[in-house]
Amino acid sequence: MESFAKDRDQVIRKSIDEGLKYILTVGTEERYFAKVVEIVNDNPIVYGAIGIHPHNSTDFNGNTAATIRSCLKQKKIVGYGEIGLDFFKNYSPKDVQMKAFREQLALAADEGLPVIIHSRNALTETLQILGEAYRNMHGGVVHCYSYDRETAKRLLDMGFYISIPGTITYRSAEELVKVVEYVPGERILAETDAPFLTPHPHRGKRNVPYFVKLTTGKMAEIRRQQVEELAATICGNFIRLFLNGQEVPAE
Ligand SMILES: [Zn+2]
Q1: How far is the CA of 117 from the centre of ligand 1 (A)?
Q2: Is the pTM here over 0.85, yes or no?
Q3: Distance 70 CA to ligand 1 centre (A)
Q4: Which bin fits 47, alpha (ψ -120 to 50), beta or left (φ > 0)?
Q5: Nearest to 113 by CA among 83, 140, 132
Q6: I need a surface site. Which of 14, 169, 180, 201 has the fewest CB within 10 A?
Q7: pLDDT digits (tens, 9 = 90+) for 157-200
């Protein structure tokens, strides 16, 4: 949020000029929720998701749940997340993260929304919790995918989408390359995770939504596809997962 405070409008305008059709912005802490609602209401191209990020799991309680439910009444809040587990940073204790993850999956299911899952160094527990919950859920995506192809298969079998970040453009991406080759077109998504994980050749700088074209370009090369074809597929997947299949033309 803070990293786009000064030039958010310009970045959104440039993204439209670059041909982006949809941007999904994510509020990961309660203090950002109102801003997400404001941004999506001001910008036809932008949709929103809100949820308590695993880093902030200790903040999740009954009051937060009530605030989230009230924000979800907004039509353009189309996803629940990021939620999940991060045992790499461990900013919240493990057991607290697992409890917040389970409770928010239930909340998302109850609200009929797809989830955006953040999972880092937490493979076993993520699969266990999703395995218990997925039958009641309204789909979801594992964002900034960082696991292997076998894990991707298990997540696909549970109905999830796999989202590929800018790290696919890094030289160290061998495992992720195998995932990009493997995931069927109808389940693949691309993202920036802006302002983080900036794709090559801008690595080290702030990431912006339209850099997703670099990520999609690399993915198309790996999949031996035309980039326009892959971009159209990804766009269709976004519409199916987050917009109930209803394309809403940007004004
Ligand atoms: Zn994340």
Answers
A1: 7
A2: yes
A3: 23
A4: beta
A5: 140
A6: 201
A7: 999 999 999 999 999 999 999 999 999 999 999 999 999 999 99
